[in-house]
Amino acid sequence: MTLRIGFDMDGVLADLATAYAEVERRLFGDATAGAPDSPDANGEGGVDPGEDEADAPETAKDATRRLREERRRRQIVWHAIETTENFWTTLAPLEPDVVRHIAETAARHRWEVFFITQRPETLGETAQRQTQRWLAAQGFDLPSVVVTRGARGKLARALGLDYLVDDTAKNCVDVVADAKARVLLVDRSGDPRVAGNARKLGVAVVASAGKALDVLERATTARGNPTLFSRLAKKVGWTAGGREPEA
Ligand SMILES: [Mg+2]
Protein backbone atom coordinates (compact mmCIF):
# COMPACT_ATOMS: atom_id res chain seq x y z
CA MET A 1 0.00 0.00 0.00
CA THR A 2 1.33 3.41 -0.98
CA LEU A 3 1.14 6.03 1.74
CA ARG A 4 -0.37 9.35 0.75
CA ILE A 5 1.12 12.32 2.54
CA GLY A 6 0.12 15.99 2.44
CA PHE A 7 2.43 18.88 3.23
CA ASP A 8 1.20 22.40 3.82
CA MET A 9 3.42 25.03 2.16
CA ASP A 10 3.66 28.28 4.13
CA GLY A 11 4.97 27.90 7.65
CA VAL A 12 5.97 24.31 6.96
CA LEU A 13 8.27 24.55 3.93
CA ALA A 14 8.26 28.16 2.72
CA ASP A 15 9.02 31.26 4.79
CA LEU A 16 6.03 33.49 4.12
CA ALA A 17 6.37 35.21 7.52
CA THR A 18 9.70 36.85 6.68
CA ALA A 19 8.61 37.88 3.19
CA TYR A 20 5.33 39.27 4.57
CA ALA A 21 7.22 41.26 7.25
CA GLU A 22 9.55 42.68 4.57
CA VAL A 23 6.58 43.91 2.52
CA GLU A 24 4.99 45.37 5.65
CA ARG A 25 8.21 47.12 6.64
CA ARG A 26 8.63 48.53 3.14
CA LEU A 27 5.09 49.96 3.24
CA PHE A 28 4.77 51.02 6.87
CA GLY A 29 8.31 51.28 8.21
CA ASP A 30 7.72 48.54 10.77
CA ALA A 31 6.23 45.06 10.96
CA THR A 32 3.71 43.46 13.24
CA ALA A 33 4.53 40.02 14.58
CA GLY A 34 3.54 37.07 12.45
CA ALA A 35 2.07 36.77 9.00
CA PRO A 36 -1.46 35.59 8.35
CA ASP A 37 -1.57 32.44 6.25
CA SER A 38 -3.91 34.05 3.75
CA PRO A 39 -5.63 37.37 3.17
CA ASP A 40 -8.67 35.96 4.94
CA ALA A 41 -6.88 34.54 7.97
CA ASN A 42 -7.80 36.43 11.12
CA GLY A 43 -9.58 38.86 8.86
CA GLU A 44 -12.96 38.15 10.37
CA GLY A 45 -14.28 37.91 13.87
CA GLY A 46 -12.79 41.16 15.06
CA VAL A 47 -14.84 43.80 16.80
CA ASP A 48 -17.34 45.07 14.32
CA PRO A 49 -17.33 48.84 14.34
CA GLY A 50 -21.02 49.32 14.89
CA GLU A 51 -23.36 52.15 15.75
CA ASP A 52 -22.77 51.73 19.49
CA GLU A 53 -19.26 53.02 19.04
CA ALA A 54 -20.00 56.50 20.39
CA ASP A 55 -21.36 55.10 23.66
CA ALA A 56 -18.68 52.47 24.06
CA PRO A 57 -16.07 52.95 26.75
CA GLU A 58 -12.75 54.39 25.60
CA THR A 59 -10.97 51.04 25.76
CA ALA A 60 -13.47 49.28 23.49
CA LYS A 61 -13.26 52.20 21.10
CA ASP A 62 -9.49 51.93 21.07
CA ALA A 63 -9.73 48.22 20.44
CA THR A 64 -12.11 48.81 17.56
CA ARG A 65 -9.77 51.37 16.07
CA ARG A 66 -6.78 49.07 16.47
CA LEU A 67 -8.55 46.11 14.88
CA ARG A 68 -9.73 48.27 12.02
CA GLU A 69 -6.20 49.57 11.50
CA GLU A 70 -4.76 46.04 11.61
CA ARG A 71 -7.28 44.87 9.03
CA ARG A 72 -6.53 47.84 6.79
CA ARG A 73 -2.80 47.14 7.04
CA ARG A 74 -3.31 43.45 6.28
CA GLN A 75 -5.35 44.30 3.19
CA ILE A 76 -2.67 46.72 1.96
CA VAL A 77 0.14 44.19 2.51
CA TRP A 78 -1.80 41.43 0.76
CA HIS A 79 -2.61 43.77 -2.11
CA ALA A 80 1.12 44.47 -2.50
CA ILE A 81 1.81 40.72 -2.46
CA GLU A 82 -0.89 39.99 -5.00
CA THR A 83 0.46 42.64 -7.36
CA THR A 84 4.03 41.30 -7.13
CA GLU A 85 4.76 39.20 -10.19
CA ASN A 86 5.33 35.54 -9.28
CA PHE A 87 5.62 36.40 -5.57
CA TRP A 88 5.35 32.74 -4.54
CA THR A 89 8.54 31.86 -6.37
CA THR A 90 10.51 34.39 -4.30
CA LEU A 91 10.14 32.87 -0.82
CA ALA A 92 13.06 31.37 1.07
CA PRO A 93 12.83 27.81 2.38
CA LEU A 94 12.32 27.56 6.16
CA GLU A 95 14.82 24.72 6.41
CA PRO A 96 17.67 24.23 3.97
CA ASP A 97 17.35 21.09 1.82
CA VAL A 98 14.16 19.83 3.49
CA VAL A 99 12.23 19.76 0.20
CA ARG A 100 14.97 17.71 -1.44
CA HIS A 101 14.92 15.46 1.61
CA ILE A 102 11.14 14.97 1.21
CA ALA A 103 11.66 14.05 -2.47
CA GLU A 104 14.34 11.50 -1.63
CA THR A 105 12.39 9.96 1.24
CA ALA A 106 9.20 9.81 -0.83
CA ALA A 107 11.05 8.02 -3.63
CA ARG A 108 12.62 5.57 -1.19
CA HIS A 109 9.31 4.65 0.46
CA ARG A 110 7.09 5.11 -2.63
CA TRP A 111 5.01 7.79 -0.93
CA GLU A 112 2.53 9.82 -2.94
CA VAL A 113 3.01 13.42 -1.88
CA PHE A 114 0.61 16.37 -2.19
CA PHE A 115 1.57 19.95 -1.45
CA ILE A 116 -1.46 21.82 -0.17
CA THR A 117 -1.90 25.57 0.04
CA GLN A 118 -4.49 28.32 0.20
CA ARG A 119 -2.15 30.87 -1.39
CA PRO A 120 -4.03 33.60 -3.23
CA GLU A 121 -3.24 34.32 -6.87
CA THR A 122 -0.67 36.99 -7.72
CA LEU A 123 0.41 38.63 -10.96
CA GLY A 124 2.31 36.27 -13.21
CA GLU A 125 1.67 32.54 -13.34
CA THR A 126 -1.03 30.80 -11.31
CA ALA A 127 -0.33 30.17 -7.62
CA GLN A 128 -0.25 26.46 -8.48
CA ARG A 129 2.39 26.85 -11.17
CA GLN A 130 4.52 29.24 -9.06
CA THR A 131 4.41 26.74 -6.21
CA GLN A 132 5.37 23.90 -8.55
CA ARG A 133 8.33 25.91 -9.86
CA TRP A 134 9.46 26.72 -6.33
CA LEU A 135 9.27 23.09 -5.23
CA ALA A 136 11.13 21.93 -8.34
CA ALA A 137 13.85 24.53 -7.70
CA GLN A 138 14.09 23.25 -4.11
CA GLY A 139 14.63 19.68 -5.30
CA PHE A 140 11.19 18.05 -5.70
CA ASP A 141 10.57 17.42 -9.39
CA LEU A 142 7.01 16.89 -10.72
CA PRO A 143 5.25 18.09 -7.53
CA SER A 144 1.47 17.71 -7.14
CA VAL A 145 0.20 21.04 -5.84
CA VAL A 146 -3.37 21.54 -4.68
CA VAL A 147 -4.50 25.13 -4.22
CA THR A 148 -7.61 25.06 -2.06
CA ARG A 149 -10.09 27.61 -0.76
CA GLY A 150 -12.05 25.09 1.29
CA ALA A 151 -11.63 23.15 4.52
CA ARG A 152 -8.57 20.95 4.98
CA GLY A 153 -10.55 18.07 6.43
CA LYS A 154 -12.73 17.59 3.37
CA LEU A 155 -9.71 17.84 1.11
CA ALA A 156 -7.67 15.38 3.19
CA ARG A 157 -10.55 12.92 2.99
CA ALA A 158 -11.03 13.41 -0.75
CA LEU A 159 -7.31 12.88 -1.36
CA GLY A 160 -7.32 9.84 0.91
CA LEU A 161 -4.39 11.19 2.89
CA ASP A 162 -2.75 8.98 5.48
CA TYR A 163 -0.76 11.85 6.98
CA LEU A 164 -0.88 15.63 6.91
CA VAL A 165 1.88 18.00 8.01
CA ASP A 166 0.59 21.51 8.77
CA ASP A 167 1.57 24.51 10.92
CA THR A 168 -1.97 25.81 11.56
CA ALA A 169 -3.79 24.30 14.52
CA LYS A 170 -7.16 25.08 12.91
CA ASN A 171 -6.28 22.97 9.85
CA CYS A 172 -5.09 20.12 12.07
CA VAL A 173 -8.30 20.16 14.09
CA ASP A 174 -10.34 20.21 10.89
CA VAL A 175 -8.53 17.16 9.54
CA VAL A 176 -8.86 15.26 12.82
CA ALA A 177 -12.60 15.96 12.77
CA ASP A 178 -13.27 15.21 9.11
CA ALA A 179 -10.67 12.79 7.77
CA LYS A 180 -8.78 9.65 8.66
CA ALA A 181 -5.36 11.19 8.21
CA ARG A 182 -2.97 11.30 11.14
CA VAL A 183 -1.76 14.83 11.71
CA LEU A 184 1.60 16.37 12.50
CA LEU A 185 1.54 19.99 13.66
CA VAL A 186 4.77 21.87 12.99
CA ASP A 187 5.19 24.28 15.89
CA ARG A 188 8.38 26.29 15.91
CA SER A 189 7.43 28.30 19.04
CA GLY A 190 8.28 25.55 21.49
CA ASP A 191 5.30 26.70 23.59
CA PRO A 192 4.34 23.77 25.86
CA ARG A 193 0.67 24.87 25.74
CA VAL A 194 0.60 24.19 21.99
CA ALA A 195 1.98 20.70 22.53
CA GLY A 196 -0.48 20.09 25.38
CA ASN A 197 -3.50 21.16 23.36
CA ALA A 198 -2.40 19.17 20.33
CA ARG A 199 -1.91 16.05 22.40
CA LYS A 200 -5.45 16.35 23.74
CA LEU A 201 -6.65 16.27 20.14
CA GLY A 202 -4.47 13.32 19.19
CA VAL A 203 -2.21 15.46 17.01
CA ALA A 204 1.56 14.99 17.03
CA VAL A 205 3.68 18.12 17.50
CA VAL A 206 7.07 18.43 15.82
CA ALA A 207 9.53 21.32 15.92
CA SER A 208 10.31 21.39 12.20
CA ALA A 209 9.44 19.89 8.81
CA GLY A 210 12.63 17.83 9.06
CA LYS A 211 11.41 16.35 12.35
CA ALA A 212 8.03 15.61 10.74
CA LEU A 213 9.85 13.74 8.01
CA ASP A 214 11.72 11.67 10.62
CA VAL A 215 8.42 10.68 12.27
CA LEU A 216 6.84 9.84 8.91
CA GLU A 217 9.77 7.68 7.97
CA ARG A 218 9.57 5.83 11.29
CA ALA A 219 5.82 5.40 10.86
CA THR A 220 6.41 3.94 7.38
CA THR A 221 9.00 1.52 8.66
CA ALA A 222 6.76 0.48 11.57
CA ARG A 223 3.72 -0.04 9.35
CA GLY A 224 3.93 -3.81 9.22
CA ASN A 225 4.58 -4.09 12.94
CA PRO A 226 1.55 -3.16 15.11
CA THR A 227 3.53 -3.21 18.37
CA LEU A 228 6.22 -0.94 17.01
CA PHE A 229 3.64 1.32 15.40
CA SER A 230 1.51 1.73 18.52
CA ARG A 231 4.67 2.50 20.50
CA LEU A 232 5.53 5.25 18.02
CA ALA A 233 1.93 6.55 17.96
CA LYS A 234 1.91 6.73 21.74
CA LYS A 235 5.26 8.50 21.81
CA VAL A 236 4.32 11.20 19.30
CA GLY A 237 0.76 11.59 20.60
CA TRP A 238 -1.40 10.13 17.82
CA THR A 239 -4.67 8.97 19.26
CA ALA A 240 -6.76 10.38 16.41
CA GLY A 241 -6.80 9.42 12.77
CA GLY A 242 -5.56 6.31 11.09
CA ARG A 243 -7.32 3.78 8.96
CA GLU A 244 -9.07 0.66 10.18
CA PRO A 245 -6.56 -2.17 10.51
CA GLU A 246 -6.53 -4.26 7.36
CA ALA A 247 -8.17 -7.66 7.65
MG1 LIG B 1 0.65 27.07 6.74
Task: Quickly list its features.
247 residues; alpha/beta; Rossmann fold; 2 domains; globular; binds magnesium ion
How would you describe the overall organization of this protein?
This protein is of the alpha/beta class and 247 residues long. It has two domains: 4-15 and 92-236, Rossmann fold, CATH 3.40.50; 17-82, no CATH class. 46% of the residues lie in helices and 11% in strands. It is built from nine helices and six strands. It has helices at residues 16-28, 58-82, 98-109, 127-138, 152-159, 169-178, 192-201, 209-221, 226-236; strands at 4-8, 112-117, 144-147, 163-166, 182-186, 204-206. A six-stranded parallel β-sheet has the order 3-2-1-4-5-6, sandwiched between helices. Strand 4 (163-166), helix 6 (169-178) and strand 5 form a beta-alpha-beta unit. Helix 1 packs across helix 2 and helix 3 packs parallel to helix 8 (209-221). The chain binds magnesium ion. Magnesium ion binds next to loops. Magnesium ion is lined by residues 8, 10-12, 37, 167-168.
Q: Pairing-aware structural class of the strands and helices? A: alpha/beta
Kindly state the percentage of residues in helix: 40-55%
Number of helical regions = 9
Widest β-sheet, arrangement of strands: 3-2-1-4-5-6
| CATH topology call of the largest domain | Rossmann fold
Write the layout of secondary structure elements.
Blueprint: E1 4-8, H1 16-28, H2 58-82, H3 98-109, E2 112-117, H4 127-138, E3 144-147, H5 152-159, E4 163-166, H6 169-178, E5 182-186, H7 192-201, E6 204-206, H8 209-221, H9 226-236
Parallel strand pairs: 1-2, 1-4, 2-3, 4-5, 5-6
This protein binds magnesium ion.
Residues 8, 10-12, 37, 167-168 line the site of magnesium ion (MG).
